[in-house]
Q: What sequence folds into this?
């Protein structure tokens, strides 16, 4: 397995946002985490990626204990994350956004005199990531001037440019129109062939078409976890989250 | 944070050419005020270096410091302290000594200050700046509140031959111009480097920089130290020019003035704050020559500049460039 959490817990004062969550993500697996608003999905992402220190429990990445490491160290170990709210460098060009992400892979960027534009491998990596996400022809535009959907694509390109082994994507489809969503789902399916994905998502159709394993969270705790079909058929999940059974699922 | 546009490059080259030509033509253009203007322009070029050094923190990395003058003043005081009383100090010893001291102090101050951000960062840099002020004001080091004189300017010698005679006003002018151009080019090189790109990204969205895997703390500390050291270089030159240092050099008024130059000039552009230094100081000189109450028209001038050029003089130039393309 590439990622494992054991009894991961985060309490904000009296509120337990994530309650003893244990997950196992295997290599090259697309693992979705779903749940209603306030289920603790984004907090879980923040705990896994070092953006928040957990109150209790451990995170293991490739067998190594990464619990409580700061975000930049977790990123360097190979866990790339995207953000639920678009989180870019808006005034910088699309290319520079991706280039910075690729530059983060250098053993260190504490170089003062040589121009960054001369780092050929970094440039190539940035271009590759932009091409993969269909943004190669928009590389000179300021990131902040693109459409919401394109900014989400750039968000993903930046994660890919950091050369991660595990992608933790926090609602990559958030706020997207139907057409944009379809393009993103196709992109995610392609990525699922080459990468291990942890996909935190709201959009059911997308989740069931991309993921192999689904974990359902309610009120910070895991309600059900297993292969897509099993979870889809689960009575408890249907009651708690997917509706009372009278709907399509 | 890209390269300056063509129009900016032309303006900068013309400005440097004019500055380089002034000592040759000034005596003929302004027979009465030539010596005064030569000294004034030297002083402005030194302030421009300070403003550019502050821009690395404020405009590029988004760290608004209100204590930058402490490093300016410290650089000046180090010249006064390290100079022997009755003979010229050897520049090759005194300058590195002064810069190393300022670098060490700004690294120490920075290490504490960068733990905060936003308003807290402003307050903590202000506090450190005032500590520096009172250190020199209330202690016996270098004359207390009276300040101290640098009786003999440092000598620039190699193998016993005097290379630059800093006692000559014209020679000092060209040294200041050389430092101004060199510091500008150094900062531009820094901004184009991998280090500078990360620093600029920190100024836009620090949390994302960390998320990408960069330890932002080290970048901010390096920027704080480099900016402080360059301000120290400016202060060193100022002390050498006037032959005098006093605690006011470290005061927050001075920090605030540098901040105004950065903002009016155009944050994050490096050349903008240098233009800001010239605009502000030349305007002040102009108002002072016609009225005793120069601060009132100065205030109106600043307000007008902010209204006309919300993104500073640099932003104004960029707008001209875009207007011309259409």
A:
């Amino acid at each position: 397995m590439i990622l494992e959490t054991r009894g991961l817990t985060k309490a904000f004062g009296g509120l337990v946002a994530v309650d003893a969550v244990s997950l196992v993500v295997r290599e090259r697996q697309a693992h979705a985490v779903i749940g209603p608003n306030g289920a603790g999905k984004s907090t879980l992402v923040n705990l896994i990626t070092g953006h928040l220190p957990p109150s209790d429990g451990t995170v293991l990445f490739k067998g190594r204990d990464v619990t409580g490491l700061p975000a930049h160290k977790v990123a360097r170990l190979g866990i790339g994350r995207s953000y639920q709210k678009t989180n870019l460098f808006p005034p910088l060009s699309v290319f520079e956004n991706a280039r910075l992400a690729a530059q983060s892979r250098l053993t260190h960027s504490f170089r003062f005199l040589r121009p960054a534009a001369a780092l050929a491998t970094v440039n190539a990596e940035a271009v590759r990531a932009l091409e993969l996400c269909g943004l190669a022809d928009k590389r000179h535009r300021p990131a902040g001037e693109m459409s919401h959907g394109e900014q989400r694509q750039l968000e993903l390109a930046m994660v890919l440019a950091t050369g991660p082994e595990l992608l933790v994507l926090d609602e990559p489809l958030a706020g997207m129109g139907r057409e944009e969503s379809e393009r993103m789902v196709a992109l995610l399916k392609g990525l699922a062939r080459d990468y291990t994905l942890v996909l935190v998502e709201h959009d059911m159709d997308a989740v069931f078409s991309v993921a192999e394993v689904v974990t359902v969270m309610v009120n910070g705790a895991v309600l059900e976890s297993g292969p897509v079909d099993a979870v889809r058929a689960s009575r408890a999940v249907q009651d708690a989250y997917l509706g009372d059974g009278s709907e399509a699922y | 944070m890209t390269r300056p546009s063509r129009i900016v490059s032309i303006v900068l080259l013309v400005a440097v050419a004019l500055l380089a030509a002034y000592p040759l033509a000034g005596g003929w253009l302004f027979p009465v005020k030539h010596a005064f203007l030569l000294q004034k322009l030297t002083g402005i070029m030194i302030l421009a270096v300070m403003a550019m050094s502050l821009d690395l923190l404020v405009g590029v990395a988004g760290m608004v410091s209100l204590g930058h003058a402490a490093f300016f003043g410290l650089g000046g005081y180090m010249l006064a302290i390290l100079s022997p009383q009755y003979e010229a100090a050897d520049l090759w010893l005194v300058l590195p000594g002064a810069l190393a001291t300022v670098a060490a102090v700004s690294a120490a101050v920075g290490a504490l200050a960068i733990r905060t951000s936003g308003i807290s960062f402003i307050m903590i840099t202000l506090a450190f700046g005032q500590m520096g002020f009172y250190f020199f004001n209330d202690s016996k080091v270098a004359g207390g509140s009276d300040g101290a004189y640098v009786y003999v300017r440092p000598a620039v010698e190699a193998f016993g031959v005097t290379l630059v005679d800093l006692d000559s006003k014209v020679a000092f002018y060209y040294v200041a111009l050389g430092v101004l151009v060199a510091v500008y080019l150094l900062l531009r090189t820094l901004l184009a480097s991998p280090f500078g790109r990360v620093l600029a990204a920190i100024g836009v969205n620090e949390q994302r920089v960390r998320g990408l895997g960069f330890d932002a703390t080290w970048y901010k500390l390096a920027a704080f130290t480099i900016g402080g050291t360059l301000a120290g270089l400016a202060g060193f030159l100022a002390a050498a020019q006037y032959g005098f240092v006093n605690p006011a050099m470290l005061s927050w008024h001075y920090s605030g003035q540098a901040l105004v130059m950065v903002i009016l000039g155009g944050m994050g552009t490096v050349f903008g704050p240098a233009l800001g230094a010239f605009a502000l100081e030349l305007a002040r000189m102009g108002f002072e020559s016609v009225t005793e109450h120069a601060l009132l028209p100065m205030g109106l001038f600043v307000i007008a500049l902010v209204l006309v050029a919300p993104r500073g003089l640099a932003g104004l130039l960029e707008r001209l460039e875009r207007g011309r393309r259409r």
